[in-house]
Design goal:
With about 220 residues, the chain is α/β, with parallel strands linked by helices. The chain has a single domain, classed as P-loop containing nucleotide triphosphate hydrolases (Rossmann fold, 3-Layer(aba) Sandwich), CATH 3.40.50.300. It contains 5 helices and 8 strands, in the order ββαβββαβαβαβα. Strands 1, 2, 3, 4, 5, 6, 7 and 8 form an 8-stranded mixed sheet that branches. The longest helix has 27 residues. Bound molecules: guanosine-5'-triphosphate and magnesium ion (MG). Guanosine-5'-triphosphate binds next to helix 1.
């Protein structure tokens, strides 16, 4: 859930990168950290094992001029893909404003992609949320691998729904489409935020600005 701080006129949104083990979630965040200008991003915080597997989460804060008069930041989190850390997934997902689901394009990872997607749905439900309520972007990563499943197959597997999610083909290792993915999810999160503000206006029957709201 977005949080608004009136004291320093700032708003922050939480975006969570999910997906099957080793699909490239940490690589996305590391590439964003490397590509984005120092003036608009914080330090990368990674809690990983010696073998570079995400143990708890990775965290990166990115600032953007998105809400007039407010310093707006997007707090990016990854979750560990390994099922043993499901409690962490649930915890990090709590109060998410948007989701990036990273899918592994390797043909032999398709069952794992589907399991991770279903697990995400189940955990959102436990948190009282759902994929229908949240802005979601799909990223089909590792398009460079020789055994990549066709994009049509990934779309059929993960995006076969009436309101289809925006999707990107990426090579996170080379940084390809990592910024486009972040732009898409952050724009969707902002659109959702404005829609909620307008609904609040309609309910209260008077115009409201971010400065008049404690949280959305
Ligand atoms: N070929 C290829 N490999 C990639 C790509 N993106 C990431 N990788 C590799 O995939 C492996 C796993 O990447 P991570 O970013 O650690 O994956 P993760 O999803 O964070 O993994 P967990 O935190 O353990 O769930 C690493 O060896 C990456 O270099 C890509 O686009 N192409
Ligand atoms: Mg990781």
């Amino acid at each position: 859930m977005s949080s608004i701080r009136h004291e320093d006129r700032s708003i922050s949104f939480k975006i969570v990168y999910c997906g099957t083990p080793l699909c490239g979630k940490t690589t996305n965040i590391a590439q964003l950290h490397a590509k984005l200008d120092l003036s608009c991003r914080g330090d990368l915080v990674s809690l990983s094992t010696a073998a570079d597997r995400t143990l708890f989460f990775d965290f990166l804060s990115v600032e953007a001029a998105a809400v007039p008069g407010y310093r707006t930041s997007f707090q990016l989190y990854t979750v560990p893909g390994q099922i043993t850390y499901n409690a962490t997934l649930q915890l990090v997902l709590r109060e998410a404003d948007g989701i990036v689901f990273v899918a592994d394009s390797q043909m032999d990872r398709q069952r794992a992609n589907l399991q991770a997607f279903q697990n995400l749905e189940a955990n959102l439900r436990l948190n009282g949320s759902s994929l229908e309520k949240l802005p979601v972007v799909l990223q089909y990563n590792k398009r460079d691998v020789p055994n990549a499943a066709p994009v049509e197959y990934l779309e059929f597997l993960l995006n076969n729904r009436p309101n289809r999610f925006i999707s990107f083909e990426s090579e996170a290792k080379k940084g390809k489409n990592v910024i486009a993915t972040l732009n898409a999810v952050s724009q969707a999160v902002l659109a959702n935020f404005h829609q909620q503000m307008m609904q609040a206006e309609a309910t209260l029957g008077q115009p409201r600005r971010a400065s008049e709201m404690s949280s959305v």
